[in-house]
What does this fold into?
Amino acid sequence: MSCLPQVFSTFRPVVERWYLACCDDAGVTPAEVPLKLEDLALEVPRTFRSEFAAVTPPPAVRITWNGLASLWAFSQAVVRVGRPMFEAQRTADPTAGPPQLAIGGELEEGLHLFELSPRLSRNKFDGWVDWAPVPDPDAVGASLGGNRTFENALGWIMRHELAHLRLNHHAVAEPLPHEAKEQEFQADAQATHWMKGSLQVDPGRALETRPSETELDLERRALGMFTGLAWVAQFELVPHGNSSTHPPVMDRIGRMIGDLRLADDSFACEMLSYVTKVLVDPEGVWPPDQEVPTAKDAAMEAMFRLSRAVAAFKG
It folds into this structure.
């Protein structure tokens, strides 16, 4: 047995509480569609791998501890790496070129957590990593921000799996590739709709001014949703073939940005661009020969670069 169920044991009641909120949005109860936290994967039997899945019959949402741990590490990395990049950009001299960050402290820890995430996704761990923060739902500091991002990332993924069940996607036993990919887009859209709720940007707010608490709530949720799909993107940045069931992450995030209707100066979009840069080209200068006037433009530029990077790995 892996150590991960024990290491993340304090998160079990928290995740179950988050799942209850997801079920409320989906119009079901945990008794009707239980959450199953499992040690071993189903898709590749008797392996310790990341897995988030809607299964039926009977209907359930199934998550492995490897998936939970990998997503947690990735969420912690997003905050530790993205926030210093965001703050450096805000204080930089626009005439002096891109800001240079010293690698150390939380930033260095975040880079290591990005490396830990894929390891957690596919290996059995007999003991926790001694340099990494201990998973704690009551943590403070950077881990508090990471936990909030993790909550929203996991919340969106669980809603996505519930959407598959509510949309009756399992009625088609063996969908054709284009049908399977359309089902993923539908589940994405439904999960995003549930999680966004009635939250909207403030139409009267001037760009680069502080958003209202309602808009900040939307931004935090958006960052979590982006994190959930960016976590998937890291597995496309290795040699792989074309998926017959899932659309490219770039296309999924592009649709999500449209559905969320965020402001042009969106904090979540800017953070997404930084995270993508770290995953794809941490040493590069983005963009080298043109300006991207808004945070949303930067996010879409990042998705274009992500698409090119993923294409280079396809077999």
